[in-house]
Amino acid sequence: MELLEFENTSALDIALAEKVVAMLAADIESSGTGSLVVSGGRTPMGLFHLLSQQQLDWSAVTITLADERWVDNQHKDSNEKLVRENLLINEAHRANFIALKNAALDAVDGETDLEQSLAAVGQFTVVILGMGDDGHTASLFPDTEALPLGLDMNSGRTGIAVMPTEAAHQRISMTLPRLLDTQQLIIHISGAGKQTVLQAAQAGEDITQLPIRAILNQQVAPLSIYWAK
Length: 229
Known about the structure:
It is a single chain. This protein starts with a strand and ends with a strand. The chain is built from eight helices and ten strands. The chain is globular, with a radius of gyration of 16 Å. The strands form two sheets. A seven-stranded parallel beta sheet has the order 1-10-9-6-2-3-5, sandwiched between helices. It has helices at residues 9-31, 45-52, 79-86, 107-119, 147-151, 176-179, 192-202, 212-217, and strands at 2-6, 34-38, 61-65, 67-69, 96-98, 124-129, 159-162, 171-174, 182-190, 223-228. Helix content is 34%, strand content 22%. Helix 1 crosses helix 2 (45-52). The protein has one domain (2-228): Rossmann fold (3-Layer(aba) Sandwich), CATH 3.40.50. The chain has 229 residues and is an alpha/beta fold.
């Protein structure tokens, strides 16, 4: 595990954008395609805008989300809306996007179609995850019925429906094994509060208490943590 600390979010965003673009460019050169998994929320907004301006063969890049709320893509809480308005613009408007929310009435009914969509991508180039104050990542929340399946490395599943106990909206989330099927895994966080959660996660092993531990403790994918003070 590699921990990179930055004095501010601007410095972090610049460094992380350079890392992501370099990896995507290398994958495009070697295999003809690249793929990027991103997360929603306020933290990646600056990164999204920087990435959108980078010179890259974006038509060869597929972008998708680690998780999504089961809402229309015009809903204010939609991660897809956030990505379309802040990342899939400028140079990056040519990238291919795979939506996690599909036409099914609820997330449970949408699982099969989602898994088929994700199977077409293969191994990801880069997966960027956030972390909540409760230690969740993607939509793998503590104390949810779906968590054991989401963390099961032998489930054969790539996407699952989740109903958070406190957060709003039914959700769809990539499972732990699908998130780890990547050339590079990145945790992107900022602020003293997130550092405290990270330290607590590093100090224990119960992944059901703080699901981010499953990311920190795995030995499958190279992991870097980008943290801004």
